[in-house]
């Protein structure tokens, strides 16, 4: 292990319940119940991509700009005032930083949202870079998302570990040649057995990374 890509939501930050609720609640105002598979698919997308996907999939009449403005206000409030870190998040980041590992964040969350929580909790002190689906130009469901980050890190893909709660992101990273570690998140527990079965490593608390 020479470098680590940490996912943000559901891995370092306890926020996936919020993302599920806000999406579902938002769509319920339009008389729509989001299917579970649609919800899981959206975990690999940026906010821009997911809103475009919802607009097209459910044939929403609102413009994209109207949808984005409504979502943005609630997301900014959440990251600024309500979001909490996962247990031992800062401790494990410090542990790997002291071991001279390259640490970056790879997330589907837009940069200006992610930076709110990263700066709020001092995560920026431990990482060397923030890569988002928008900045990379590919969603986490595409291998290019991970190969682009690997190229930027300058390390062999097999020496780069992805820590992520999304079974879809983990699958993609494995196809791209990275080592993967599945992170348990209560909000995707229905897919946990898939994560355990498909990945060499799986953890229920970030502190367990010390044993890998």
TrEMBL record:
Q: Which Pfam families match?
A: HAD_2
What are the recorded GO MF terms, alphabetically? hydrolase activity
- Give the keywords, sorted: Hydrolase
Say if the entry is tagged with keyword Hydrolase: yes
Question: Sorted alphabetically, which Gene3D superfamilies does this protein's record hold?
Answer: HAD superfamily/HAD-like, Putative phosphatase, domain 2
Q: Which InterPro entries match?
A: HAD-like_hydrolase_sf, HAD-like_sf, HAD-SF_hydro_IA, HAD_2, HAD_sf, PGP-like_dom2
Q: What is this protein called?
A: HAD superfamily hydrolase (TIGR01509 family)
């Amino acid at each position: 292990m020479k470098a680590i890509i940490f996912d943000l939501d559901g891995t370092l930050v306890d926020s996936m319940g919020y993302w599920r609720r806000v999406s579902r609640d938002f769509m319920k105002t339009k008389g729509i119940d989001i299917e579970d598979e649609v919800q899981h698919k959206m975990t690999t997308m940026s906010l821009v991509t997911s809103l475009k996907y919802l607009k097209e999939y459910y044939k929403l009449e609102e413009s994209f700009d109207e949808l984005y403005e409504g979502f943005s206000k609630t997301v900014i409030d959440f990251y600024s005032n309500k979001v909490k870190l996962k247990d031992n998040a800062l401790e494990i980041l410090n542990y790997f930083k002291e071991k001279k590992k390259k640490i970056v964040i790879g997330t589907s969350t837009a940069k200006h949202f992610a930076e709110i929580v990263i700066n709020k909790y001092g995560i920026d002190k431990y990482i060397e870079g923030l890569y988002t689906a928008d900045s990379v130009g590919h969603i986490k469901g595409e291998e290019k998302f991970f190969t682009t980050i690997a190229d930027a890190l300058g390390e062999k893909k097999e020496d780069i570990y992805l820590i992520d709660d999304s079974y879809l992101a983990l699958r993609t990273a494995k196809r791209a040649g990275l080592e993967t570690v599945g992170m348990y998140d209560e909000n995707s527990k229905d897919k946990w057995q898939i994560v355990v079965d498909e990945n060499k490593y799986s953890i229920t608390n970030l502190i367990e990374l010390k044993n890998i």
